[in-house]
Amino acid sequence: MRYSAMFGKTQKDAPSDATLSSHKLLHKGGFIRESTAGRYYMLPLGIRVQQKIINVIREEMDKSGAQELITPVLHPLELWQETNRTNTTGFELSVITDRRGAKFALGGTAEEMMVDLVRKFQISYKDLPFNIYQFSTKFRDELRARGGLLRVREFIMKDAYSFSTDEDQFKAEYKNMWETYLRIYRRLGLEPLVVEADNGYIGGEYCHEFQVESEIGEGKFFISEDGQYVAHEDVAKFIVEDKNINEDLKEMQEVEAIRGNTMEDGVKLHGLPDWQQMKDVMFTDSEGKLYLAVIRGDLDVNKTKLEHVLNKVGQLDSATEEQIREIGSEPGFISPVGLEGKVFIVTDKSVRTVHNFYGGSNKKHRDILNINIDRDFKADLEADIALAQNGFESIDSHGKLIEKRGIEVGNIFQLGYHYTTLMNNSTYTDVDGEQKKYYMGCYGIGVGRTLATIVEKYHDDKGIIWPEEIAPYTVHLIGLNLEDEAIKSKAEAIYQVLQKMGVEVLFDDRTDTMAGEKFADSDLIGIPYRVVVSKRTGEGVELKLRNQKESKNISLEELVETLK
RNA sequence: CGGAGUGUAGUUCAAUUGGCUAGAAUACACGCUUUGGGAGCGUGGGGUUGUGGGUUCGAGCCCCGCCACUCCGACCA
Predict the structure, then answer these.
(1) What band does A215 get if pLDDT is binned at 50, 70 and 90?
(2) I need a labelling partner for A493 at 20 to 30 A (CA). Which of A117, A359, A371, A550 fits?
(3) How far is the CA of A24 from the C1' of B18 (A)?
(4) Is any atom of strand B within 7 angstroms of residue A496's beta carbon?
(5) Is the CB of A130 under 7 A from strand B?
(6) What is the distance between the alpha carbons of residues A15 and A505, in angstroms, rounded to a whole number?
(7) What is the pLDDT of residues A28-60, one digit of tens each?
(8) Are A511 and A487 in contact (CB under 8 A)?
(9) For residue A342, which phi and psi values (nearest 5 degrees)?
(10) What pLDDT digit, counting tens, does each position of A532-562 carry?
(11) pLDDT mean over A304-314
(12) Predicted pLDDT of residue A264
């Protein structure tokens, strides 16, 4: 490709609102251009990188035994109604209506479509297991797009769906995908951590995220000191040590408490440790039913865990002050004592590590001292609903938990019978002639996000440093002094030779551009091999690798040998 | 959805208290010059100041509505 003919040139300035390196560099380098929030044009340079990433994923997926196909972008809305996901998805479904009035969802994920496709066939147990996947544009009406390509509203995703007879057969495929993903990311120059995570609206019981460690990442997770336990904040487990559990139970006592509504206010007023305070957080579901989460004062409630133990995934919100007052309590002074029967009380296991809690009384400016579970109130449910924090002790003696941030570049989900239970006729014929439900899994990789993550990891202050496997071109050939016919024809000749060899070359053939500008562009674009032809290079050329400082002069033969 | 903020040339930004034909840099086009780290000179094109209304002799600037975008949070991969 001749630079002079390429659509989409480099640019000195990045948009003023771009904050991330990947966003700035991809914009300046001429890889992407903004359309509206969270939607991007992918320019010729960007497409080449994207295509190479896709090819790596495709090769490894095919090697794993998965089979590529494609589903329509418009999903009949009835399918989403069948699984009751028109309301429960985390992202807003975009729905359009055709001229006959038929409604379609713009696909954000394709479980329903794949199950619907599979049930159109007469599948026997002999056909199982299989794994089908696609690359397609996904639509997610994110509340807030951000960070260049990292969180967008339209993006290409590789999504795979496995169908198995049972959990055992599925687990083999889950492991297969796990290993396939690690191979894919290794080829892309990424080393993600595999993090236990929450299934969210996708459904199913367990899943893993592939997180590339990064300060700009949105996902928070924990890794144990020995590296054996890696879990997302939503699901991370930890040991809650006993506090004053040997102290005798004292008599409950209501006292005046002129204080503010925060935990600190309580600590200050009573002069007692924060862990002895009872923290009470009120939640409501979509029907207005109230749930009181009770936890030790030094811990926080993990809403995801709470939703799971209540079987209300994605359905809980903080209760409003009005709702709290309606049941006879008071914001900032909530207590489980006296609320039994009025709300559903869930206590964290940490409530059993402390005696003689202090906390609110459901009355403004009145607190209760020496609250004890069982004696003074009863929980409707006891569970682990606590949020992990940096430095907490991990379970199973893996050491302390270390907090990390990461970019989630992919995930693998166990779906089990979730979709095949909700969708009619999604069955295969087993050996005994019975119709049985499929055991499913799904596996996603965000292509654009992966691309941006690679840039986040591979760049310097001058530009991108693409790993060779996915660089838009292998060689950036720079011609200087091109007004000199001899030099010009030599550069042209090298361009032809490399192309004939099958080497992908971007040839900076501009005659009206300063040398410095060409070098700056080449650093910005980040192609691995920079080859300069000029009056200085004589019979040979100058070769410099983008990831190295030194350049060297070599002969044409050596160049050909290097790039073979 | 809550809080904060911003919309002026393709881009980055100016424009005094509300006052003359809305400027500069960069990018783009042409000419000259120049070719090892974003060079120089000259000329030129490029704006319904997001949008609709209002106040005013006069609005880029003040007021109101709407739209878009950004940041923080909530939400979510």
Answers:
(1) confident
(2) A550
(3) 38
(4) no
(5) no
(6) 29
(7) 999 998 888 888 899 999 999 999 999 999 999
(8) no
(9) -85, -35
(10) 999 999 889 999 999 999 999 999 999 999 9
(11) 84
(12) 82
Does A22 fall in a domain? no
Residue A276 and residue A157 share a domain: no
**Domain around A500:** 473-563
Residue range A55-87, pLDDT digits in tens: 999 999 999 999 999 999 999 988 988 887 776
Instruction: For residues A360-367, give the mean pLDDT.
Output: 91
CA→C1' distance for A157 and B49 (Å): 40
Closest nucleotide to A551 by C1' from CA: B36
What CATH number is associated with residue A160?
3.30.930.10
- Cβ atoms of A332 and A360 within 8 Å: the answer is yes
Query: Is the pLDDT reported for residue A88 higher than 60?
Result: no
Q: Are residues A413 and A496 in the same domain?
A: no
Residue A203 has pLDDT above 80, yes or no: no
3-state secondary structure A200-243: HHHCCCCEEEEEEECCCCCEEEEEECCCCCEEECCCCCCCCCCC
pLDDT (average), residues A441-459: 93
Strand B contact residues in chain A (90-119), C-beta within 7 Å: 90-91
Span CA (A28) to C1' (B46), Å: 22
What average pLDDT does chain A have? 91
The interface predicted TM-score of the complex, written ipTM, equals 0.90
CA of A15 to C1' of B48 (A): 24
| Tokens 């579901």, located at residue | A285
Strand B atom within 7 Å of A521 CB: yes
Percent of chain A with pLDDT over 70: 98
Q: Total structural domains in chain A?
A: 3
- Taking the CA of residue A284 and the C1' sugar atom of nucleotide B49, their distance in angstroms comes to 48
Q: In what order do the strands lie in the sheet with A278-284?
A: A317-318, A278-284, A290-296, A344-348, A381-383
pLDDT of residue A76: 92
Nucleotide nearest to A232 (CA to C1'): B77
In terms of Cα–Cα distance, which of A320, A322, A339, A333 is closest to A362? A333
Residue A449, in any domain of the structure: yes
Residue nearest to nucleotide B69 (CA to C1'): A37
C1' (B67) to CA (A36) span, angstroms: 13
A512 CA to B31 C1' in angstroms comes to 13
Chain A residues 395-424, Cβ below 7 A from strand B:
408, 411
Element (H, E) at A32: strand A32-34
Signed CA dihedral, A309, A315, A318, A320: sign only:
negative
CB A58 within 8 A of CB A188: no
- Give the residue-averaged pLDDT of A231-257: 92
